[in-house]
## 1
Amino acid sequence: MKTKRAWFAFPYMIWMALFVVIPIVIMLVYSLTVDTETAAGTALEASFENYTGMALYMSVFGRSFWLALIATIICLLIGYPVAYLMSREGPGFQRLAMALIMLPMWMNFLLRTYSWMAILENNGLLNQLFQKLGVIALYNRLTGSNIDHFQMIRTSGAVVLGMVYNYLPFMILPIYTVLTKLDVRLIEAAQDLGANSVTVFRRVILPLSVSGIVSGVTMVFVPSVSTFAISRLLGGGTQMMLGDLIENQFLGGAYNPHLGAAISMVMMVIVVICMLVMNHFGDGEGEAVML
Amino acid sequence: MSKELIRLKDVSMTFDDGVTVLHDINIYFNDKEFLTLLGPSGCGKTTMLRIIGGFQTPSSGDVIFDGVRINDVPPYRRQVNTVFQKYALFPHLNVYENVAFGLRIPREGTDSNGKKEKVKLSREEIDARVREMLEVVSLKGFEHRSIASLSGGQQQRVAIARALVNRPKVLLLDEPLGALDMRLRKDMQQELKRIQQQMGITFINVTHDQEEALAMSDTVVVMNEGVIQQIGTPEDIYNEPKNAFVADFIGESNIVDGIMREDRVVEIFNRRFACLDGGFGKDEPVDVVIRPEDVDIVSEAEGQLKGAVTSVTFKGVHYDTIVDFYGFKWLIQTTDYCPVGSHIGIKIDPDGFHVMKKSKYSGMFGDYSSYSEEYDEINDPTLLEAEEEGNDDED
């Protein structure tokens, strides 16, 4: 039976081969070569130059992983309680909460991020509101400074905000799924054995929701590390991240696909290592998500 | 027997959806006894157990533990531990850690000056108690096994050890043997009884299996529709059922309408029989129970009653023989083979009759006209399972 049905997987395997495996091989080849001028035109020449020259971009690597890490932690701190409270409520509330969480996702990702620009800009909605409420005047009086707006856009904070806003549902959903599947009898059993609600959470609920946390962290961290739209729109060019750097090598002014491929490869390897470490804590259930 | 430990006083339970599952329950549980709450799905037995465990607060009435009202005491402060239906073992912990779970939680106690403080057991003490308990349930050497790698019977033992290691005064068991196969269930019945005697504490067991209840218990409490039908020793419950429901639920019973003509004389099918019961009004209508094994088959001429055999089923030890007496079908268990269609007579000794007062259950049970269907139901495990699932939701 098993072998007979194996061909069901062929379309997917062909898809994966064409659009995942072959591109990675091409990237690997690109990253290990440079263009050289010969009499016949440009040719590829094997070289480690792309990797050795990458030290220049250490700060971009550092910022990308740092901001993605902060965004992931914030998502976890916000998302876990939300998922937990949702899972404890009745089915009506759960459906409503789920609809509210999914609602922003029905809008285009770029549109959402542009909206945040309008909110965070120097003369954007939020600064206008602060002016009207006298918050800025109060701030000037208290600190003795003289500003007419808070600098919110073009800061790392704005980038983290954008990531949290866009990726929070991906943290909530897997944790929520795990928590709703948790057997209520286990909680009762723990209470029966003398555990108060804090102990029940610490010794039973939290350990049993690790697989959801691992999935959530993976699904927030990976797109956060490689994002380029959020950092460009909300960071305004001051917060260059790996995504921007790579895009710049392929489509932008710094045109150098070989370097772009090398940076992509390094990023991929680091992300895979991060995920392997994460999976080590989570029974390996997050592995499926990673792939 | 010994002193009273738990008492439920006028306990009623109505759920949010308006369904009342317990009606004015009054019952007490003695120290060191093995008591079984027995009844069909939805009779309120599990709810009663959950009220004692602290997982549900009764709508009205009091729960008294050792003389103190404990209605509002949360489960984690009660000297009661539970073996849950399907065990509810912690899947992220191994056998040892499951058993040690309760011991690792600091308890409220008082220090030498009488001040309240959290008492934590030492690692050595925890280890000693876990190992001792694993030995009691015959699971020595399984300490580091994962829960998923255990069989149903082994999981059952871990659940018992996990509860007993906390040295509760009462162990509550919610359908503890329901998920085990027949052979294992029989073994575990003996095992549970042994453990109860060894630990010397009260066991309150919930089951719908009357055989299990009779085999294990000191006291059986038969429940139906949220009302206690009868409390007594297994022998009392079987030999002296209080009403048609109990008679039908415990074992097999032929229940017929009768009239108590005078003390020790009962009339069924317009014939008078000698019996051992008395204390009824003259000519009082009654329900009469005749157990299938108390009927002797004789020749038609010798018989007190005469009928025709309509079905015979070989059961190993005996034949289940259905006999039609004047349109009422009886189940008779006999080692004599009587072919279908043969005309026979029966004899019943005076101690074969048990006379009961009329109740709301009169006329509902004890006729074997639909016998074969009933048997199919009993023998179909999927039906029983489905019934149980339904019960879970209800409770």
## 2
Amino acid sequence: MRRLLKTAALAVSVIALLCMSSCHGTQGMADFIVPEEFDMNQTHELIFWAKNDTNRTQTAIYEKAIKDFEALYPNVTVKIRLYTDYSNIYNDVITNIATNTTPNVCITYPDHIATYMTGINTVVDLDEMMTNEKYGLGGSEVKFESPAYDEVIPEFLDECMIQEKHYAIPFMRSTEACYVNETYVRELGFELPEVMTWDFMFEVAEAAMEKDENGMFKVNGQNVMIPIIYKSTDNMMIQMLAQKEAEYSDNEGHILIFNDDTKEIMYMSAEHGKTGAFSTFKISSYPANFLNAGQCIFAIDSTAGATWMGTDAPLLDISPDQIVRFDTAVRMIPQFNPDKPKMISQGPSICIFNKRDPQEVLASWLFAQYLLSNDVQIAYSETEGYVPVTSKAQNSEEYQDYLSRSGEDSNEHYRVKIEASQLLLNHTSDTFVTPVFNGSASLRQAAGQLIENAVKSARRKETIDDAYCEEQFSKVNSLYHLDQISASSAGTEELGPLPAPSKALLICLAVVWVILGAVYAIPLLKKKNMHS
Amino acid sequence: MRTWAIIKTVSETDKGVNNMKKTLYGILALAMSASLVGCGNGGSKGPDTTKGEGVMTYAEYMAAELDAEVTVEAYVQAKQSWWDNKATFFAQDADGAYFFYDMPISEEDFNKISVGQKIKVTGHKAEWAGQIEIIDSEFEIEEGSWIADPVDVTELLGTDELESHMNQKVLFKGLTVEAAEYTENGDKYVTFKDASGNEAAFMYKSNGTGSQGDDVYFTVSKDGKNYTFLVRNYLTGKDTDVYKAAEALEIGKTYDMAGYMYWYNGPNPWITEITAQ
């Protein structure tokens, strides 16, 4: 009996070990625990994936930040890889999660982090790190002047929260602005209000479509005029729904966008898309290029694109001979209710990927935290219509001086850029973000696609009615797998099939129970047989 | 066509000399055969000019309004990398060139379409930053193959006529490489400086903010005027001869360059071959 028990125990151990080893490599990383000390004798090479806005100064600031950080922490080197598109970072991270070759530090969006988190412990939960006495925000052992926890703007920090925990820290914040050719608005007989309504913008746009006897647009004397160009139709749909207090999604990952308010927005987009008064980046190209060439009146784009906007824009993507001179005004995006404005809060955040060596993760955190220091925050925010994410930087003498010098020159103090930043500073409490969950990035894309499709169909003289909208709902639902998101993200609904490692574990447990049962039952049966 | 015209002329003027005529026919037939063999790797055999039912001629396509549904038949001349069940193609027929942007296609079909393959495409005509293209399209692989010879458009640089070669395989001869430059501060060109603070013959991205693997931009001059050309990574890849040749350009040297006449707010040629003179 003892021998049998020993054999059984051995078998159980082997099976358990096999179970554990089979799960190794597929279950992800262990929980990260903040080390007691940061070992300055251990060297680390950190990989940092960042985004710049095709802006040379931003690249230089990243490079300087790395150099300064490496001087403070000589045992750490940082290698940067620059992207110009968040979606490319997202795609590369997803690809690298499977092979455990993610970067250490990454500029990203919370929507994307929610997808990265499908790998277990892939992204480091920063709650403990941020409040760590020694190495946390403003920690005693941090070798630079970092902001304290309560110096990070709370609205911006909250945006980095996923499932009740912070998986990122904000890096820069922006919103969208409407860059207006005010000269043309006046020439068309309108006065630009402080806060535009959608109706006002569309009315001016339709007036601008009038042509002369030679087929040229009266307002600019050219054969091209697209009065409104929206860069991000994802944002357009999301903000219009928010302004209407209509449904989009909820924190549980329920997809609520397929509603009558969405249809109204599709009709509105199609109506003005059909006349040519409204177009999008995907259909026509960059709003700034048309605006600067006098071929657009309302260019709606991120405040982080302000340096490309206007007659004297420091950055330019068309040949100088195409530039037309006009007065550039900066306004918040149009509103349905000007007394209760709503605009999106966006901009890059920083996440840290988990690694086997906690010291390496701590080094990553220190570098990420360095990006919140005043040196980096102020310098980077001045490159575009960004806003620093800490009150420490926002209230600094240096930053306040920068804001006060708006319009002094057409480069560092370019008026349009500083007015764009000021727009967000003045309206931080009017900003909002959408719920973040695994799949919220796809929902965003779907939101924009509904507008893109409606405009394209209207231009192609298709009928845009209720049946059309329903068909589009069904199409984007399928294209972006929104039905699957809804099913897997909402806790009370069907969770789908178990992952393979879980299945393996359950099978192993069943086998163990069978063996234990046999160990117990066989002697009993033998005993019984002997008695009989 | 020109060869047949010569035959006709010869046969009519030498009506009485049958032997000589036969000899001439023989020589010309041999010459034609030889010329066809010589053009086996190029396009001189010529594309099939007959169009299937419902297929537009190039002229009809160009005359179609933006957003209209169009159907064309053309021979693929270059493929951009496949991604997310989409790919972009340059294609040509006998009369002009097309750009099929983000055409839905499986990776398997993408691999089936080699350069020269004839395809039929139905989609919507669109214009993006001046580039005329077909979007939201469907395709069919058809019988036939033809690779176009590049058209020398050197003399058209700086003229409006260049636009008529949009998307076509083109050739520029005798271009001098200048220090790379970009536009900044509204109305002026700025010379790009590399990490050492020196002028450079090329830069990554349109204003030098990129790194290896991004598009390579360079400035060339002809008859005292500067033009911006690029090697498009998505079209060629960064491990190709042309990408490396662009990285090896030297200021002041003269080169011949072939590529595709892409349009981005004006001529924006995507170069696929660089040859030093």
